[in-house]
Amino acid sequence: MNDAVTGPAISVRGIEKSFQDLHVLRGVDFEVRTGSIFALLGSNGAGKTTLVRILSTLSKADAGTATVHGFDVASEPLKVRESISLTGQFTAVDEILTGRENLALVARLRHQPDPGGVADALLARFRLTDAGRRRAGTYSGGMRRRLDIAMSLVGDPEVIYLDEPTTGLDPEARIEVWNVVKELAGSGRTVLLTTQYLDEAEHLADRIAILHEGRIIANGTLDELKQLLPAAKVEYIEKQPTLEEIFLAITSPSTGSGIAA
User: Fold this and answer.
1) Where do the domains of the chain lie?
2) With bands split at pLDDT 50, 70 and 90, how would you rate the model's confidence at 1?
């Protein structure tokens, strides 16, 4: 990994983005601490993927600023790309190639000195060694997603974007991916996770930001978000609100904006 930079791993200030008359992002602000898992939670169409594309230098913001690993996404896009990896909603593996061939190919494209060694190390890390010489098309959904994430780690990026990584996976495969995400953060990397699954954000994230209608309306730890709702009591037992209850309550039209970052 590269030397750490001072300040947050990701800093977003006033980001706006529109497509003709459709205002997708309306002044988004948040920071992500280095080595943490930050969940960007929102329903379909909330603007999560648009924001990730801006932070990946794949799209330009109409207004606002953002830095990733200390580099400005608008003025230093090459430095940003060297610091990040992006795993999209759909796996990018070549199903004709074996798992090892997929990894070695990416290693060659990223000019790694020992592509085979890189591939073998990542297969071992993601518990895919036994399947490494099988065609990726024979993998289960969870195995393909693990291979996809492994491919994104070639080159040792500091900041990892996972855009709805468990969409379409069965419960067992989702748990496999969750374990991988926790391992990544445990190794010191910063993970920005977008999801529409409330339990996923609740299970994984150090901090959770709720993106609704183009704005961050709540941003905090799970305990901080729970404070947005009064504790409900049944007889003498205090009921803690679930993240789902918090999300639905603060995104309803009659509810005001949430806590600040």
Assistant:
1) 10-90+190-251
2) very low
- For residue 139, pLDDT beyond 60: yes
Phi, psi of 202 (to 5 degrees): -65, -40
Cα separation values, 136 from 143, 221, 236, Å: 9, 37, 54
Residue 193 β-bridge partners: 39, 162
Shortest CA distance to 220 belongs to which of 30, 20, 21? 30
Which pair of structure tokens corresponds to residue 60? 């330009």
Phi first, then psi, for residue 187 (nearest 5°) are: -85, 0
Q: Give the CATH number of domain 10-90+190-251; options: 1.10.10.10, 3.30.450.20, 3.40.50.300, 3.40.50.1970.
A: 3.40.50.300
> What are 145-170's pLDDT values in tens digits?
899 999 988 988 999 999 988 888 88
Beta-carbon count within 10 A of 137 CB: 12
List pLDDT tens digits, range 201-216: 999 999 999 999 999 9
Side-by-side strand order, sheet with 215-220: 84-87, 159-163, 190-195, 37-41, 207-212, 215-220
- Name the residue among 120, 111, 113 with its Cα closest to residue 150: 120
Lowest-confidence segment of 121-135, 139-153, 205-219, 233-247 by average pLDDT: 233-247
- pTM for this predicted structure: 0.82
